[in-house]
Structure formats: C-alpha cells, structure tokens
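Subgroup meeting minutes
Present: P.N., E.W., G.H.
Scribe: E.W.

1. P.N. recapped why we're keeping a running log of single-chain structure predictions: easier to compare across weeks, and new members can see raw inputs and outputs side by side.
2. G.H. added today's entry (110 aa).
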Amino acid sequence: KELRDMGYEHNRMLFYADSGEASQEVWDVLLYQLLSSNNVSKRRELYKAHMEQDYDTKQRLHQQYFPETSAKLLQHIDGFLEQLDALSDKAVGRDIKDHPRLPLILRHNE
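Output recorded in log:
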C-alpha cells in the first residue's frame, strides 16, 4: 500500500540495458523492501522523506544501505537475464508463421 502511495508502479521499474542504470524508483523500492524486513523505523523514515520530498534524508538512507540494495539489485538483474536467455533458447526453431512477433521479441530482449 505505501509503495502505491509513493507512486510506484511496475511500469516504472526500469533497467536501462544501454547504460546499465536502474531508475530511481527501482532503488527506492529495493531500499523500502530491505528496510521493511530489517528496520521498520527506517522504512517509515524513508516513506516520510519521500512523501515530504525530503531529498537529503532519502539520499542519506540510500547511501547508508547502498551495499545491501546494490547486491539485491544485481541478484535481481542476474536472475532476470537468466530468464531472458532461457526464453530466447526456447524460441530457437519456432515457426515464425505460428509466432509472428517472435523476431521482434528476440530483438527487444537482446
């Protein structure tokens, strides 16, 4: 509920393949999830800072927990890339007549 209140939706969780960057929303959600599991008072502090547009507090929290959130992000991206590779492997040998969008999907996932 709080994540929705903060304005975060799945379509804003972006990873940019060309630069390797993740959107600010991704970092915020990872930090929120991390704090939800190990420090509820800090999670509340993050939520309040976000809702009040207190950039300094958010940055301090991001810096404090950067090793944990970056590890979590890397784990997520590695898993996602493994899934893409597995799905691309499944596409080999498929008939384009039966799956006309397959070339577009494969190009998108490169």
